[in-house]
Amino acid sequence: SSFVGFMFPSRWYSWKEKSSLSQAEKESFRTFLANRINEIETIYYNIHLFTLQVKMINFYKNQIINIISTIEGQIEKKGRKITDEEIGLLYTIKAQLSYRSRYIQSELQKVYSNLFFLLGLNGNLKGFCIEMISLKKIDEEVKEAKDPDFNEVYRKSREIKNLDALKQASKFSLKQEIYSYFQPQMQNPIGWGYFPSIKISRSRIKQIEVYYQKTLADLKRSTEIVIIKKNQAVEQYKIGLRQKTAMDGPTRALERNILNIKEQFDIEKAIRFFDFGLEGDSIITANIHLFWQAKSHMNRLLWQGKNYDGIEEVVVKYYGKNKI
């Protein structure tokens, strides 16, 4: 008797509704996994950035230590003249770099804590490190970067597929309500609840359609923001490169000044080296990582890249091999 009941239209539409809802649930799960991957990638790039910044600042810190050591040796052994104020400025630069290094390391610990929370790990950093990315091909990578296509984003969006499945389920639900009066066991099928149920089902379809249009607009806006951030990062990266190149001459002039004990030590050259040199390196490093983060968000929108390849395997393990 249950088989006969299944053959009636409302039973068939009920089964189709459940199938579409199941598909919508899978699409939601895929979206959840993709968002978590993107979160972890963002944290990874922040860790990578802070790690490089610490190394960069320590490089400049070692430079100022070497300058101080050289100058003080020249004062003691060769009678080079330099004022106490100038020596004090060199030590101030050293102290500032030390403070900056410690501050970034403390921020790095906070980002690690966020990563451990997402991965469900304990907070012990001993023996934990990330794989560092080579910067050798960054110019080529920046040059080859392309903007995502809006239509491709819409086509690949699991959020849209989720809403498609929900809309389909709602349509089946409506048909189930319409054909429910065919059910033999229905009591008073055209009763008080019949028409309100149909009205509710139709309202649900309209609500999903509104949310569908909102999701399309959100995807378009997210894609636009990613493109803007990527282009801004590329432009700032180029500015950093130009500033770094412009420091080549002043850097060599500082080196000659330090080695020439007959020449008055030029504290202004040292200050420019540490101010503009560090600033140029900081701009380059920061915007490389902003570029990578923008690419990461592009990959999330387009569902591309090796980190997204394993999502389907997880979905199959969680829901089983039966696909709808």
Give me a quick take on this structure.
By secondary structure, the protein is mostly helical. 79% of the residues lie in helices and 0% in strands.
3D architecture notes:
The protein is built from ten helices and no strands. The protein has 324 residues and is mainly α.
Which features does this protein show?
324 residues; mainly alpha; 10 helices; 0% strand
Shape: elongated
As residue ranges, the low-confidence spans are 1-13
- Give the SSE string: HHHHHHHHHH
Beta-strand level of the residues, as a percent range?
Answer: under 5%
Terminal residue distance: 27 Å
Largest sheet composition: none
Question: How large is the radius of gyration?
Answer: 31 Å
Give the overall pLDDT as a whole number.
82
Structure class: mainly alpha
Report helical residue fraction: over 70%
How many alpha or pi helices?
10
Topology, number of strands: 0
